[in-house]
Amino acid sequence: MANGRTVNAFLSLRLPPPLVDALVALQRKQRERVEPQDPERMHVTLGFLHDADAARLADAAALLSAGDWTAPRVRLTGEVRHGSWALQKDPAYRHDARTVRSQEQVRLGIEHTPELAALYDGTTRRLGVAEDDFWPHLTLGLAKHDFPAAEAEALDLPSTTETAPVVELQQELSVTDFRVLVHKALT
After folding, report:
1. Which of 3, 14, 7, 25 is nearest to 159 (CA)?
2. How far is CA 10 from the centre of its chain?
3. Considering just the CA atoms, what is the radius of gyration of the chain in Å?
4. Which of 47, 99, 122, 125 has its CA 20 to 30 A from that of 133?
5. Alpha-carbon distance 47 to 63, whole Å?
6. How far apart are the first and last CA of the chain?
């Protein structure tokens, strides 16, 4: 990142393997509608560092590496949303609550536990990237074509409950591809 170059990065929780397995099974059932998120890249999104320079990434890496957080339990709430940060940059894009549009992410809500709140506050708030309307979620995949949001909201979601093993700082390479910068085991 020499010469003032910036990247988009984010803080995330690695999903526990039993939940990944259950989500892969769900992705198979939705393969006609949703391009699946790679199981190796599945995560709970905590917060974004948009246009982060080298100093900003170093601060985030140091904070994450030095932290000692309790592993939060990961359980789906049953809430499903859709949207796209990438598509929002296109002036022609209009979010429609009733329709999942092609290339929008299908996002699954995660229970907001005290452990998750402590991790969120200890990282995103300290880095100044906390969002008032924080909604912990994981991305099932990208919509292959438009379809009614009611069909996404009716998904039979896994009931697996496990603790997240790791928190990470990842660099966004594309909508579906990331590079791990920091990998920190949770206690």
Report:
1. 25
2. 8
3. 16
4. 99
5. 14
6. 32
Q: Give this prediction's pTM.
A: 0.88
Label residue 16 left, alpha or beta by phi (over 0 means left) and psi (-120 to 50 means alpha).
beta
**Tokens, residue 87:** 């598509």
CA-CA distance, 80 to 139, in Å (whole number)?
10
81-134 pLDDT, tens digit each: 999 877 888 888 889 999 999 999 999 999 999 999 999 999 999 999 988 887
For residue 180, give the DSSP letter.
E
Q: What is the pLDDT of residues 112-124, one digit of tens each?
A: 999 999 999 999 9
Is the separation of the CB atoms in 114 and 158 below 8 Å? Answer: no
CA 141 to mean position of chain CA atoms: 11
What ranges make up the beta strands (E) of 37-136? 43-52, 73-74, 76-83, 99-100, 105-110
115-134 b/e (C-beta count within 10 Å ≥ 16 → b): bbeebbebbbeebebeeeeb
The 10s digit of each residue's pLDDT in 47-86 is 999 999 999 999 999 999 998 989 999 999 999 999 987 7
